[in-house]
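I am still getting used to backbone structure tokens and would like to learn alongside you. Label the sequence line and the structure token line clearly, so we can match residues to local backbone shapes. Go ahead whenever you are ready, and we will take it from there:
>
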Amino acid sequence: MEGPLPPTPSLKGRGSSGALLPLPLRAWTAKRTKVGGSGRFFPRTHATPWLMLTPALSAAAIIVLLPVLDTLWMSIHDVILYRPRVRPFIGLANYAWAVADPVFWESLWHSLVWVVAAVSLQFTLGFIAALLLNRSFAWRAVARALIVVPWALPSVIIGLIWTWMLDFNLGVLNEIGVRLGLLSASVPWLAQSSTAMAGVILAIVWQGFPFFAVTLLAGLQAIPGELYEAASIDGAGAFGKFRHITLPGLAGVMATALLLRMIWVANSLDLILVMTGGGPGTATQTLPLHAFLTAWSGGNYGHGAALSVLLTLLLLGVVVAYVWRNRA
């Protein structure tokens, strides 16, 4: 009868330079432990995180930082398309021109109306949609998938769809309005100053409300169900649960979503460019569209760059106020 096998030597409890390792591997492991710490293949230095971030920071510098610096440079020089080799330094003259231009203030007012109306309606519809999609009903998964369709479509496609829907002769909205007696005759929605802004706002509301729906739905599902059960035991009604549980639980999500969407809408110009081109006249011309038309259609890159910098400073002020408010 053979006796029990001898115990197998174990490395447990030994250092990284244990005697069971071969001599060359033991020496390399000891050196690695001394330089970088036990179990690490790279030295632990303060530069290591920055080395790991170098590819991402390099890409961000090329894609974001360089265009920003180039825009700042053009905003203080007289850069005109038909004389590209002559770019004299003019200081803040482009900014003085922008502030003195009445179209700048008109575009700024249109941008304010555009952002406030669009984001408010998107948030309201998205919140209602999130509350409905959070409930249990048949085909809920299909509804959650379909609601993302407007958000997934390109802005150019959405602009063309809504231009056709609002068309004076063939628009389906005019047809429905006349047949239901809501309109006495077809309305040129995008061809008159009084209704053009409402038409483009309607299009961007349809495009953007799924963002709020999906974001707020995720926030709703993160609220523990035990809170609602405890509130029911305490006798709270539907409004009480909504006020004391749902709204506080979504406060952070709503603030972040509103800030992001406000910045995106303030910077957007493709939808307006496709539907109205800023017209009729300047009735739908927002600040980013004014900067685009000044640079590309007018050929004055210095003026367009100054308008872009002013828009960036305005949005940066909103972001700083949001960060300061959250820290306070």
Remarks:
- The two ends are 79 Å apart (CA to CA).
